[in-house]
Amino acid sequence: MKIDLHAHSTASDGTESPAELVAAATAAGLTTLAITDHDTTAGWGEAVEAAIREGIELVRGIEISCSRNYRSIHLLGYLPDPDDPRLAIELARARDSRVNRMDRMIRRMADDGIPVTVEEVRAQLAPGATLGRPHLADALVANGVVPTRDEAFRDLLHDGSKYYVGHYAPDPVAAIKLVRSAGGVPVLAHPFAMRTATISDDMVEELADAGLAGLEAHHRDHEPADVERAVHLAERHDLVVTGSSDYHGTGKLNRLGEFTTDPREWSRIVEQSHGVKVIKP
Ligand code: AMP
Ligand code: ZN
Ligand code: FE
Ligand code: FE
């Protein structure tokens, strides 16, 4: 089995449609793929149709943008009921606040003479998709301000940039409880990546007590010491260990299947879920 539990489509900031993502996963030899777009389940329907066509196991998931002390923390939620009202309202609130946040970032750039408009950013976005900095990056590339999405982040859009504006995001404890109450299984995404370097051992314990199910240990943004730390903490708190690519199509260097999840760990996730079913080939 080759199980990759973290990938993005055009429903957020991936560059492939949900159907294209599923086809790419099949071509990459995966047996199981999770579609985990930022703050939305909009890609699920198309992905399910494609998975049935391609004969691949599909996991319906999300990646919820959370925040604590102005630091961004990403929480993967596997197999939650998308119609759970509390979860749906919270995701909608986060998506709405991203619209106003984008306006403010664009205004800050305009004040500095950087040419980009809301319409140009919108042109980079699939209908119904979650708006994010990657779309602003793509608009800057299209306008010739920067050559690539990566350089847009490095020079203009990183968290410490003067153009950066945050958006509404729930605390991770609240998000863990929402995912659980919707029957989903919450796993911390890339917990020790540089961007989320504030996650302490104590915080992992706090999140485990709140209902966290697992840690994404094997991920491109983790150094060997980070992987070791995650595996160790998972043992201590009886958490599932996952590995995934965090694929974004051509939007990032990450390749499908570059990190994978052990089948025994995957089955521990399925056992804990009671939201939606895994789509079987
Ligand atoms: P946002 O949620 O709108 O603040 O945007 C953050 C998202 O941008 C992250 O979840 C990543 O998917 C993406 N991102 C962050 N850094 C980079 C980068 N250097 N290149 C491409 N995408 C990035
Ligand atoms: Zn992303
Ligand atoms: Fe993430
Ligand atoms: Fe991601």
Care to count the β-strands? Answer: 7
The number of helical segments is: 10
How far apart the termini lie comes to: 13 Å
What is bound: which ligands? adenosine monophosphate, zinc ion, fe (iii) ion
Tell me, what's the shape?
Answer: globular
Q: What does the average pLDDT come to?
A: 96
Largest sheet: 7 strands, mixed
Report the β-strand fraction as a percent range: 5-15%
- Which class best fits the helix and strand makeup? alpha/beta
The ordered string of helix (H) and strand (E) elements is: EHEHEEHHHHHEHEHEH
Low-confidence stretches: none
Strand order across the largest sheet = 1-2-3-4-5-6-7
Bin the helical content: 40-55%
| CA gyration radius, whole angstroms | 18 Å
Notable characteristics:
binds adenosine monophosphate, 281 residues, binds fe (iii) ion, 15% strand, alpha/beta
Outline the structure in words.
This protein has helices spanning 18-27, 44-54, 85-111, 118-122, 133-142, 149-157, 172-181, 201-210, 224-237, 263-272, and strands spanning 3-4, 32-38, 57-68, 71-78, 185-188, 214-218, 240-243. It is an alpha/beta fold and 281 residues long. The model has no long low-confidence stretch (mean pLDDT 96). It is globular, with a radius of gyration of 18 Å. It contains ten helices and seven strands. The protein binds adenosine monophosphate, zinc ion and fe (iii) ion (2 copies). Zinc ion (ZN) is lined by residues 8, 12-13, 38, 248.
Describe this structure in a few short sentences:
The protein has 281 residues and is α/β, with parallel strands linked by helices.
